[in-house]
What we know:
Elements: H1 17-27, E1 32-38, H2 44-57, E2 62-66, H3 77-83, H4 121-138, E3 142-147, H5 154-165, E4 171-178, E5 206-209, H6 215-226, H7 233-243, H8 247-255, H9 277-288, H10 292-304, H11 310-317, H12 321-333, E6 338-340, E7 343-345, H13 349-357, H14 363-377, H15 385-394, H16 398-414, H17 418-430, H18 435-449, H19 457-467, H20 473-491, H21 494-511, H22 513-523, H23 533-546, H24 553-570, H25 575-580, H26 588-605, H27 608-622, H28 628-644, H29 651-661, H30 666-682, H31 687-700, H32 708-722, H33 726-743, H34 753-762, H35 766-779, H36 786-799, H37 811-825, H38 829-846, H39 851-864, H40 868-880, H41 900-910, H42 915-922, H43 926-940, H44 948-952
Parallel strand pairs: 1-4, 1-5, 2-3, 3-4
Antiparallel strand pairs: 6-7
Helix pairs in contact: 4-5, 6-7, 6-8, 9-13, 10-11, 10-12, 10-13, 10-14, 11-12, 11-14, 14-15, 15-16, 16-17, 17-18, 18-19, 18-20, 19-20, 20-21, 21-22, 22-23, 22-24, 23-24, 24-26, 26-27, 26-28, 27-28, 28-29, 28-30, 29-30, 30-31, 30-32, 31-32, 32-33, 32-34, 33-34, 34-35, 34-36, 35-36, 36-37, 37-38, ...
Amino acid sequence: xxxxxxxxxxxxxxxxxxxxxxxxxxxxxxxxxxxxxxxxxxxxxxxxxxxxxxxxxxxxxxxxxxxxxxxxxxxxxxxxxxxxxxxxxxxxxxxxxxxxxxxxxxxxxxxxxxxxxxxxxxxxxxxxxxxxxxxxxxxxxxxxxxxxxxxxxxxxxxxxxxxxxxxxxxxxxxxxxxxxxxxxxxxxxxxxxxxxxxxxxxxxxxxxxxxxxxxxxxxxxxxxxxxxxxxxxxxxxxxxxxxxxxxxxxxxxxxxxxxxxxxxxxxxxxxxxxxxxxxxxxxxxxxxxxxxxxxxxxxxxxxxxxxxxxxxxxxxxxxxxxxxxxxxxxxxxxxxxxxxxxxxxxxxxxxxxxxxxxxxxxxxxxxxxxxxxxxxxxxxxxxxxxxxxxxxxxxxxxxxxxxxxxxxxxxxxxxxxxxxxxxxxxxxxxxxxxxxxxxxxxxxxxxxxxxxxxxxxxxxxxxxxxxxxxxxxxxxxxxxxxxxxxxxxxxxxxxxxxxxxxxxxxxxxxxxxxxxxxxxxxxxxxxxxxxxxxxxxxxxxxxxxxxxxxxxxxxxxxxxxxxxxxxxxxxxxxxxxxxxxxxxxxxxxxxxxxxxxxxxxxxxxxxxxxxxxxxxxxxxxxxxxxxxxxxxxxxxxxxxxxxxxxxxxxxxxxxxxxxxxxxxxxxxxxxxxxxxxxxxxxxxxxxxxxxxxxxxxxxxxxxxxxxxxxxxxxxxxxxxxxxxxxxxxxxxxxxxxxxxxxxxxxxxxxxxxxxxxxxxxxxxxxxxxxxxxxxxxxxxxxxxxxxxxxxxxxxxxxxxxxxxxxxxxxxxxxxxxxxxxxxxxxxxxxxxxxxxxxxxxxxxxxxxxxxxxxxxxxxxxxxxxxxxxxxxxxxxxxxxxxxxxxxxxxxxxxxxxxxxxxxxxxxxxxxxxxxxxxxxxxxxxxxxxxxxxxxxxxxxxxxxxxxxxxxxxx
Length: 954
C-alpha cells in the first residue's frame, strides 16, 4: 500500500512536523486525551488549528472552543460556543439534553423537550453538566479542542473533569494551557494543566510541552515567511535573540519589517526592527497585574538588559534583598522574567524592549545611573566597562561614559584584540569628548586600527580630528602617517595614501626623527599604480640617511623592515643583506607584517626557498596575535605562493572563502579575486567567469606590487590567444605595460612579458616584440630577479619564430630548453609547461622532429596541476597539426540536464557567437561545438539557438 504523501507545513509551523505527526497518531486511538502546554506565543493555537485541519481532512468532525480571560466569566461559555455549531441526530440524544435548550437555542429543533425546572439550583447545575456530557457523547467519533484553560471558568473545568473521568468511546479531546512558570503545587494537575484530571486506567493522556524554536528552526520559519530559500546566519541569530524562538513573536516581527522583499542580513549596521504593538501589548498587560515592587524590579531588569542576580536588581530598583525576592516571585508567576543559573532576565529581546519602553522617560536616567554605580561595585569577573559606559551615556554623563570606553579599548589593545579596541575607541570619539581627550583617543585609534580591518568610519573619524587643527606636530604627524597606512592597506586609496604619509613627514621631523624615517621608509615601498621606482629609491635613501639618528628600537626596527621590503620588491641584490640586518628580537605583529611582505616579494622575484621560510615565520607570528588584518595578509600571500608553485588542490575553495571574507580590504580582496579567476580559467575552462573575476581584481586593487595587474592581464591575453584574437591580446597588455614603463618596475613583468611577446608576433608586430624584449632585458640588469630572467629567456625563445623556421632545430631549441629548465628550477610548473607547449607547437609548425613529444610533455605537466583548459588547448594544437590524441573515457552522463561544457557552449551561443567563435573561446574543435549545441537544444526542447537565452537561466 502506498503511504499518503506528506502534507507541506506552513512556514509558521517550522520545526513542528514530527510533533504534529505524533499528535495525529495519539488522536487515532480512541478515547484519547492530548494536553499541549507552553508559554504564550509558542504556537499552541497554530498547532491545534493545523491538527484540526488535518483531522477534518480525514473525515472526522471537529469542534474548537477557546476560554477567554474575564473577571466574571459566563458558565460553560467556550463549550456553548463550540457545541452550538454541532448537528447531532435527534434519535441519539437522551432526554437530559433537553436541559440545554436555553443555552443552545441553535439546537432547539434537535434537542428533546426541556425537563421541568429543578427545585435545587445545585441540582439544576448538575443537570446541565450531565446534559453537556451526554450531548458530547452523542456526537460519536469527534475531536473537541478546548484552548487556553488557564482562563477556564469553574463550570468548564467541572465538565472537562467529568468527561475525562469517563470519556465517550469515540471522543478525542485536545486541551491547551499556558505553562505555569513555577513548580507544580498540590492544587495543580500533574499533566501541566492548572487543574488535575483523573482519567480511567485505559486512557493515558498524551502530554506535550511546546518549546520555543531553536536557532535553526527560527531561520527556517523566517525563510518561509519571507519567501526565500534561506536567511543569513547572522540575521537568524539576531532574530532568535529578539524573539526567543517564539513563533508568534517571529511572525509579528517579520510582518512589520520595513522591506520584506530584501532579506535582512543581520549585520551590525542594520536598524532594530520595530516593536509590534501585538508584542508590546501582552507584556504591558502582565506588568499591570504586578504589585509595585515587582514593577520596579522589572524596570531594573529592563535597564540592565543582561541577566542579573538578585543583589544587582535590588540595587537598581532600590529594594532590599527580601523585597527583591518577593518582587521576582511575582514577576516569575506572570511570566515576565525567567530565572537561569541564579540570574533573572526577560524571555526574549523584544520583551525587554517592551518593558523598557514602559518605564517613564524621566525615570530612565535615574535607573541607568544606579545601574552604572551598581555594576562598578559588582565583584566577580572583569570590570564590565562597556556596560557601565552605556549606562553612563543613558544617564547623560558623557565624560564618565567616554572614560569607561577608553579604558575598555585600552584593555582590548593590551590583550591583542585590535578589532575590539578599534570599535571602543571609535565609540569613545563619538561620545563627544573634550578636545584633549579627543586628540588622545584619535592617536590611540590610529595606532590600533592598522591591524583591525576597520571600515571607512575610522579614516573619516581621524580626518575629522585632523581638521580641528588642535593637535601638536608630533601627534598630528603620527596620526597622518597612520591614516595614510590605513588608506594604503585597507581603503583602496593608493596614491592618496602615499601623499597623506608624505604630508606627515615635515610634522614628524619636528618632533621625532624615528617617526619621520619610518614614514619615508613606508612610502619607499614601490607600487605599479604610484610613483616611478626611482622616486621610491630617493625616498628610501632619505630614510637611510636618517636611520643613524633613530634611537627608539621599535622605530628603528620598523624602518629596517620597510627598507628590506622595499629593496626586495625592487629586486635589489642588497635586499637579502637588509633582511639579515633585521633584529633577531622582531616579533609579534611586526614580524608577521615584514615576513609576509618578504614572502610575497620572494615569490614574485623567483626565490621559492626564501618564500617558504618567510611565509613560515609569518604564520608563526600571526598565530600568536589576534590581528585580523595580518591574518588576512598572510593568508592571501600564502594563496598566491600556492598558485605560483602549482599547489592547486583545494585552492579554489580556499580562495573563494577569502574573497568573501576580505571584501573590506581592497588589496587582499583583489588577490583573492585574482586566484579565483586564474583557477576558474585553468582548472575549469570557464573563460567568461574567469574574465569577470579578473576584471574585478584589477578594479579592486589599490597598491599592486606587481602581482594582480600583470597576472590578470597575462591570463586575459592567453584567453584571446587561444581564441585566435592576437590584436585583442595586445590591447589587453597595453595598460599594464604602460604602468611598467612609467614606473620602471620591469622585475614585475614576469607574468606579462611572454604572452605579450607572443601576441605581438602573432599580430604581425615583430619589431614591437623585439623592442619589448630589449626593454625587459635592460630593466632587469643588476636586478636579483630569477623569475624575470626566466621570463626573458622565454621571450627570447619566442622571438625565434620571427627569424624563420631554420632556427627551430638549432638555437631556438636551446633557448626553449633553457627557459623550461629555468622555470622548473624556480618551482613554477605552469610556466615550465607553457614554455614546452610553445616549443612543441614551434617544432610542429616547422615540421621538425620531436614536436609531438615535447607537446605531450607539456600536457603531462599541465595534468599534474589539473590545468584542464591548458590541456585542451594543447590537444587542439596536436589536432591542428595532424596529430591524433588519445581520448580518456568520458565522465558519467548528465541525462536530460546540461553538462557544464554544454551549458558553457549554450551560454555563448545565446550571446550570438558562431560555432567557430565558440570553438576558439573554449579551445574546442568546431565539430565538438556543433555536437554540444545540438545536445543543448534537444535537452532544452528548443528548435533554434536564438531561444536558448530565455531557457538557460542564471
